[in-house]
Specification:
Helix content is 52%, strand content 5%. The protein is mainly alpha-helical. The mean pLDDT is 83.
Length: 125
């Protein structure tokens, strides 16, 4: 467990005894909770997402497609299969905020200094 040397935060793990050597606060997990999360998402989120899709479809015809809202709606409609993928598996998150706010993420993006990185930092595709 050398790669955990110096880490002292939470570590969500299974029952592997090797993790006991870490200086982290160990937290277990319930595999079944992923199934419950998936069921809840499907029960609660699907009707709301359908309403959102319907509103976007209706609204896109009334907006200039080059307006900021028009661009945002068209982008979202084009990304729809990816945006709803989290409904399929309770292990998937609805967003990637944890990764985006991870220490060093922005510095890594800046170090990459590519057109794609610039778009990510601007918030565009």
């Amino acid at each position: 467990m050398q790669f955990l040397n110096g880490y002292s935060g939470y570590l969500q793990v299974d029952g592997y005894a090797g993790y006991e050597q870490a200086n982290a606060t160990l937290a277990g997990y319930w595999a079944q909770s992923f199934e419950v999360k998936q069921q809840q998402r499907q029960l609660l989120a699907i009707p709301l997402l359908q309403q959102l899709w319907d509103w976007w479809e209706k609204s896109k015809s009334t907006l200039h497609k080059e307006s900021l809202l028009g661009k945002a709606i068209n982008y979202s409609l084009n990304q729809w299969p990816k945006l709803i993928r989290y409904l399929e598996d309770g292990r998937l998150n609805i967003d990637n905020n944890r990764a985006d706010s991870a220490p060093g993420f922005v510095q890594w993006c800046l170090a990459e200094n590519t057109p794609a990185t610039a778009r990510v930092l601007r918030g565009s595709s």
